[in-house]
Design goal:
- This protein has 220 residues and is of the alpha/beta class.
- It has a single domain, classed as Rossmann fold, CATH 3.40.50.1820.
- Helix content is 35%, strand content 25%.
- Strand 7, helix 5 and strand 8 form a beta-alpha-beta unit.
- Keywords: Hydrolase.
């Protein structure tokens, strides 16, 4: 059991889901009042350098972070299509969120999602079923893959897309029109799908911090 705003926590955790153990890294700064759960895209893992860069910036602003593997190594290797099963991934994320909520044992703790690529669709799918999710950020996401639940999502949602990622811009505009809560579509000029150009990832991290600060009401 962890109590926020008391002790710093930095551990590799094993999360029980579907009779399996998903490995993750949970880091909670001493003054954290909220935790952001990361949901990586297909073919990636909790070691995604881009997600880890954003997580590091969030921790600098007193957000806790949980980066975990959506699939076991065996699942990822055995079935390529599992990576794109949004319902399965969304359900996994729901179970992980409930595990974390129970671990934190803090009614005042607010949770948010940061999803990338197909992981953004899983995050939106899970958020539609979880009232404890108070804010969502999507980076280069495919929210259109969660089209059937978009109208049910009321959590404030920031959709970040690179201006060079033309197909994904269209997917995000489709989703933006259907989201019901506070929302913003942010297009980062000169960035592609992976935000490798210049300081594009720095901009993603800065905008994520601003969004979560706004809606999770973390004191800085």
């Amino acid at each position: 059991m962890i109590y926020l705003n008391m002790d710093r926590f930095n551990e590799i955790v094993k999360i029980p889901v579907d009779n399996k153990l998903l490995e993750g890294e949970l880091i909670i700064p001493e003054k954290a009042e909220s935790v952001i759960i990361f949901c990586h895209g297909s073919g990636s893992s909790r070691f995604s350098p881009r997600n880890r860069a954003v997580a590091s910036k969030l921790r600098e602003h007193n957000f806790g972070t949980l980066l975990f593997d959506l699939l076991t190594k065996e699942e990822d290797a055995a079935d390529y299509y599992t990576r794109f099963n949004i319902q399965l991934l969304g359900n996994r994320l729901i179970d992980v969120t409930k595990w974390l909520d129970n671990l934190l044992h803090a009614d005042h703790c607010k949770l948010g999602y940061f999803g990338a690529s197909t992981g953004a669709a899983a995050a939106l799918s899970a958020a539609a079923a979880l009232p404890q999710i108070h804010a969502i950020v999507s980076r280069g996401g495919r929210p259109d893959l969660a089209a059937d639940v978009l109208s049910k999502i009321t959590a404030p949602t920031l959709l970040i897309v690179g201006s060079l990622d033309h197909d994904v811009i269209a997917c995000n505009r489709f989703a933006y029109e259907r989201l019901q809560g506070p929302k913003k579509l942010l297009i980062i000029e000169g960035a592609g799908h992976l935000f490798e150009e210049g300081n594009a990832m720095d901009k993603v991290a800065e905008d994520a911090v601003r969004w979560f600060n706004l809606y999770l009401q973390v004191r800085t």
